[in-house]
Amino acid sequence: MPADLTQLIALIDRFVDADGLHRTAYAPLSLIRTSQPTLPVHTLYEPALCVIAQGRKQIILGDEIDGYAGGDCLAISVDLPVTGQVIEASPEKPFLSLKIDLDPSQLSQLILEMEVPYVQETKTTRGLSIGAMSDELADAAVRMLKLLENPKELPYLAPLVEREMLYRFLLSPHSAPLRQIAAADSHLHWISKAIHYLKRNFAEPFKIDTVARQARMSASAFHHHFKAVTSMSPLQYQKQIRLQEARRLMLSDSVDASTASTRVGYESASQFSREYRRMFGAPPARDIAQLKESLSAAGA
Prior knowledge:
Layout: H1 5-15, E1 20-23, E2 29-34, E3 41-45, E4 48-54, E5 56-61, E6 64-69, E7 72-76, E8 80-88, E9 95-101, H2 104-114, E10 128-132, H3 135-147, H4 154-170, H5 176-181, H6 187-200, H7 208-214, H8 219-230, H9 234-252, H10 257-263, H11 269-280, H12 284-299
Antiparallel strand pairs: 1-2, 2-9, 3-8, 4-7, 4-9, 5-6, 5-8, 7-10
């Protein structure tokens, strides 16, 4: 466990005194706090490097279950629909982490400039990796947080510390997802192109040949490599994106289930209801009512 972990915990705890995701004065950096175990939450993980200071969390990606805890770091190289659940947290010892949003183009440039050793792709890499945090990465994370106390220095020094954090991670044994997303000849790089297309066009009818062309692959090769990266099929990915967006529309924009299902591309209201219930555990109207009640109780 990194020697700086105690200091990292104290700094995050100093800057955030309420549960949730908190943006900071440095745009790519967010801090996360959860003071009790949670129910499973469906969300979309976007490209990021996360440093876990305290607590424990479990995520489900496709059919795979992973966990990470204080002293670990998590890298996400492509947009991934996951189900996350904090399983170890308390008011005295909350789940605490920091997140650096990643820009793939900047990451590619960093790899080129710093001449990070290239590792030949032997198999398609999953778009998410978890591993132990190095002492050097923990030290850089501490210095990043300390900069939040110096607004005048923050805009000049934070990009340099962010660069160091990424460099430290790229030298770790679990950096393949970030290295390969930056490599133009990797399967992960091309699958990411198809993922961007699916995100932009999730409401359109799914056509495997059309999506596979975005990755410059045959339909069969695309299906194989897409599942290796995301742990789900392209059609399952589109379905999760659709259902998460429908839930957001009903909760945030107060549209009804019929309108939401049409907006996200469903032609059959009954199919939408079945798939929604399968994913979220309740029919749309009941699920949204329960969510609103839960949010109201949390704000009381």
